[in-house]
Amino acid sequence: MKTICGIDCSKCQVKDQCKGCIATKGHPFGGNCILAKCCHEHISRENVAIINTYKEKLIREFNNLHIKGMPLITELVPLNGMFINVEYTLSNGQKIKFLDDNDIYLGNQFPVNDGKGYFGVVASDQFLLVSKYENNGVNPEILIYQKREN
């Protein structure tokens, strides 16, 4: 499957459900793909270089949050919203999801220093989300959800 950004999607768990980003003009599941959008905005340069520069910018943004106990972020990978869109419980008891199942984000997860769970980071072109959760996304807690300064 040919991609706009040059990433090999052959190992994706839902590649059979995907129409591909070239055929859908950057909307492989009907939602937005952060990498396709980045490439469209900088069409005159090499896509791999664009993606790497964009990832480096996001990594700096996450690391500049200085979240206690979170390791330094060194890599972000494309993540499909349907796999990472967990439900958070707000202070008033309301349950809410912040992501779109059909969008593709950049993010990663990192073990908590005490070995009891993970930090999860997710970025779109609009926001940064940092959460902490137990194995398999159980008991997620929002640490930071903020608008990005583009």
Based on DSSP secondary structure assignment, what is the total number of beta strands? 7
In helices, the fraction of residues equals 10-25%
Multimerization state: single chain
- Kindly report how far apart the N and C termini lie: 31 Å
Radius of gyration: 16 Å
Can you count the helices? 3
Low-confidence stretches: none
Order of helices and strands: HHEHEEEEEE
What value does the average pLDDT take?
86
Q: Strands across the major sheet, in which order?
A: 1-4-5-6-7
Taken from the alpha-carbon principal axes, the silhouette is globular
For the largest beta-sheet, the strand count, sense and barrel status come to: 5 strands, antiparallel
Helix and strand composition category:
alpha+beta
Whole-number count of domains = 1
Please state roughly what percent of the residues sit in beta strands, choosing from under 5%, 5-15%, 15-25%, 25-35%, 35-45% or over 45%: 15-25%
Written description of the protein model:
- The radius of gyration is 16 Å and the shape is globular.
- The strands form two sheets. A five-stranded antiparallel beta sheet has the order 1-4-5-6-7. The chain has a two-stranded antiparallel ribbon with strand order 2-3.
- It is built from three helices and seven strands.
- The mean pLDDT is about 85.
- It has one domain (about 15-145).
- The chain has helices at about 35-40, 45-65, 80-85, and strands at about 75-80, 90, 95, 105-110, 120-125, 125-135, 140-145.
- It is α+β, with helices and mostly antiparallel strands and about 150 residues long.
- A hairpin with a 6-residue loop joins strand 4 (about 105-110) and strand 5.
